Amino acid sequence: MGRRAQPQIKERLLDLCTEHVLEHGLPDRLEPLVAATGTSARMLLYHFGTRDALLRAVLQRARERQLEAWGGLLRAREGEAYPVTLARAWAAISGPDGERYLRLFGQWRDTSPQLRGADFARRATTDWLGPLADGLGADAGPELATLVLAVVRGLLLDLDATGDAARVDGAFAELLARL
Questions:
Q1: From CA 57, how far away is CA 72, in angstroms rounded?
Q2: How far is CA 131 from the centre of its chain?
Q3: What's the CATH code, domain 7-178?
Q4: Which DSSP helix (H) or strand (E) runs through 22?
């Protein structure tokens, strides 16, 4: 008789693997995740099926953490101009707290198609449109939310590629001034 699935163990392993990947990046082998979880490769495969399935689950969990952490930062606050809200969000997203997500999702873009998953990139983009559109206001329309998101994503890519925080922060300040 086979062993019964224990979802709490799988969740704990997923959290440990996610934390490891956020700190160190996507591994090309299971061994770093084995060490991070204190379990065996056999147990990781038992719970997740394959290395790629485990890494897809890790990426999804990292994305959920990112949404939880930053989703609230993008929401409009009563009595606060939305550019002020965006400036606070930018500081978190482009600062040390955001660096590990930026690094991980940059590494993810360079991975094989089977690891990327068919719908992950679309969802990872469109998840931010709702809070941005709400914050920018009904008069702004979805086009402005799309433009702001595209600029933010481009600036994050620029920051990742160049490390020139002063220039990139200045460009973001220019965006806020034009809003």
A1: 23
A2: 15
A3: 1.10.357.10
A4: helix 7-24
Instruction: Give dist(CA 168, CA 146) in Å, integer.
Output: 19
Length of the chain equals 179
Q: What is the pLDDT of residue 126?
A: 83
Q: Is the pTM of this model over 0.90?
A: no
Domain spans in the chain, listed from the N-terminal domain onward: 7-178
Query: Residue 38's Cα: distance from chain center in Å?
Result: 25
The pLDDT value given to residue 1: 47
58-64: list long-range contacts, CB under 8 Å, 24+ apart.
58/14, 58/17, 58/18, 58/21, 59/21, 59/104, 59/108, 59/115, 59/117, 59/120, 60/120, 61/14, 61/15, 61/18, 62/18, 62/21, 62/22, 62/101, 62/104, 62/105, 63/120, 63/123, 63/124
Structure tokens given for 94: 């482009």
Alpha carbon of residue 50 to chain centroid:
22
**pLDDT score of 12:** 96
For the chain, count helices (H), then strands (E): 11, 0
pLDDT averaged per 10 residues, the chain (length 179):
72 96 92 95 94 91 88 89 95 89 80 65 81 86 91 92 94 95
